[in-house]
Amino acid sequence: MKGQETVTIEGLRQGMEVESHSIDYIPRNERHARLSSQGPFWFLGNLHFFTVSIGFVGPGMGLSAGWTTLAGALGIMFGTLFMAFHGSQGPEMGLPQMIQSRAQFGYRGVVLALMATLFVFMGFNVVNVALIMDGVKNVFGVNPVIVGTCVILLGATMSIYGHDFLHKAFRWALYLSLPLYAFVTVWLMFGLPKGTGTPVPTLGFAWTAFVTQFAVSASYNIAYAPYVSDYSRYLPENTSRKKLITAVFLGASLSGSWMIGLGAWLAQELKASDALVAIHHLGSAISPGFGSVLVIASIVGFLPQIGLGTYSAMLTCLTAADSFKPIRPTRNLRISAILGLSVVLVVCMLSVRGNGIALLNTLLLFMLYFLVPWTAVNLVDYFFVRKGRYAISHFFTPDGIYGRWQLRGIYSYLIGFVAMIPFFSVVEDGKEVFVGYFARLISGVDIAWLVGLFVSGTTYLLFARSLDLRSEEEVIRSDARLRRD
């Protein structure tokens, strides 16, 4: 018992320490994470009112709750496939996701992908904060600027403590959120008083709405792709690839499908347009004051998401800085980057205006457009070209085998992105933002992301045929020997 107590105290102590690593390689003797944590971590990653809000997209376009739930579940599962495959790269290389992309884009060329992923990380957090601000203002009437600033500061604090603390925060948030959303789901299904809801009889099926809901849902978990190995890189190098992919896939897709379905039924039965307001409405129908308790609990359970976005944005910024001038990834530098990003987030919070749900829909589509060419190039290289074989030390030098600029990856990304443009279909609040030529021919159905996946992936596969993989393999073996020694 004494030994067990010592291990527990040591584990708690480590979880409260400020992480020392950032974009550097995680040595084998520091790989203390457990595979069993990955499924719950990513289950909580989608178990919140942000994901519930995605279920409002279909009903807002005339799609019934049933069809919205189906489209959302299919989209989430499709997007999670890419997310889960990226997750397996963490333990195998012990590096943050975007450092790994130097193999496809080059030591400096990776900045192209970094710009896209930084947009995703910061965009996610802007919408996260906007949804909290809108909900708290509508429910409690509290000054949204004060709320947003406090949320950003709490997220910054969690990301400063880093990897271990975030995993612990996610675990405790799961304990809080799981009973909450299970209760709300059961009450919506069986306890909603007659006459409380206001069904909308015109909701039915429309291909444009179905495909849009699918695309938005898919983009939501594809947008997690640049995050995943940031939180799996502390796993032992011999972690089973299949088990890790399965854990990430099941965790993220199950909770994502559930929350989107919940949002769809809230939108249909209560005409909800704000997840927190809808949760408050349901709680208040049970008992006066209980709705406020549910809202506060859901916000507290959501706070680690802000830390998640800030942490990965920090890794992206440091990778970008290191790509042009080598840096020492010290603890102080990591903290400074987090504080700087938090200031930028506050500025964005004060600048952005408009409906949070409309902003969410538009942001998710743009994130999908930017990320699809990158994820296609990265996964094709990892699983089909180099098959997980990389020289780790060469990610940290512009004169290594991956070079400063890898035109194969850069051209593949750009060609895929340009090919997508005629298929773009961005509509906000019923008004066209941009609808491409081919999107108009198919009644505004957005298949740009499918085009991007195919074109970028295929193009890179063709370009990669000129790689001298035999010479690379010799360098990889030499590098592995040096790291063992």
Describe this structure in words.
With 485 residues, the protein is an all-alpha fold. The chain has a single domain, classed as Hydantoin permease. Helices cover 71% and strands 2% of the residues. The chain has 22 helices and two strands. It has a two-stranded antiparallel sheet with strand order 1-2. Helix 2 crosses helix 11 and helix 12 packs across helix 18. It is globular, with a radius of gyration of 22 Å. It starts with a helix and ends with a helix.
CATH fold-type name: Hydantoin permease
Alpha-beta classification: mainly alpha
Task: State the CATH architecture.
Answer: Orthogonal Bundle
- Pattern of helices and strands: HHHHHHHHHHHHHHHHHHHEEHHH
Radius of gyration (Å): 22 Å
Strand portion, in percent?
under 5%
Roughly how much helix do the residues carry, as a percent range?
A: over 70%
Strand order of the largest sheet: 1-2
Total of domains? 1
Shape: globular
The tally of helices reads: 22
- Please, what is the oligomeric state? single chain
**CATH superfamily heading:** Hydantoin permease
Based on DSSP secondary structure assignment, what is the total number of beta strands? 2
Mean residue pLDDT: 86
Main sheet?
A: 2 strands, antiparallel
Contiguous uncertain segments of 5+ residues: 1-15
